[in-house]
Amino acid sequence: MNTSWNALFVRRGALQEGHFRLSSGRHSPTYVQCAKVLEQPEDAERLGKALAVQAPDVGADRVMAPPMGGILIGYEVARALGLPFLFPERDDTGILSLRRGFTLSPGDRVLVVEDVITTGKTTREVLELIRAQGALPVALMALVDRSAEHRVEDLSVHALMRLDIPAYAPEHCPLCVQGIALTKPGSRPVSTHSRG
Question: Model's pTM, two decimal places?
Answer without folding.
Answer: 0.86
